[in-house]
Give the backbone structure.
Amino acid sequence: MQSRTLLAALAIGAIGLTVGNAHAQAADPCTVYTCMAGVSGVGTPGGAACTAPIAAFHAIQVWDPEFDSGSTATARRQFLMTCPGVQEPTNLAILNAIIAQWGYSP
């Protein structure tokens, strides 16, 4: 019983640290969109400058308690949709390509 309490406390602490770091290092959705378009073959790869934005995209994951690929894809799509330019029809097609290729994997 004590081990469950300890594990629960550690899990809550880890979530708190993750949330705290997420706010401190919030990625710009437009930069993430541009970099993901590049690795999806739709734009120009951004090289080293895209390492952090691509990592931010892949860090968006939904677990309940196992990895939920559909909810992860939805969360990633919603994040990218906060970039104003993604609302354009051409850019929505690129968004769909990004989510189809990268949206569902952990």
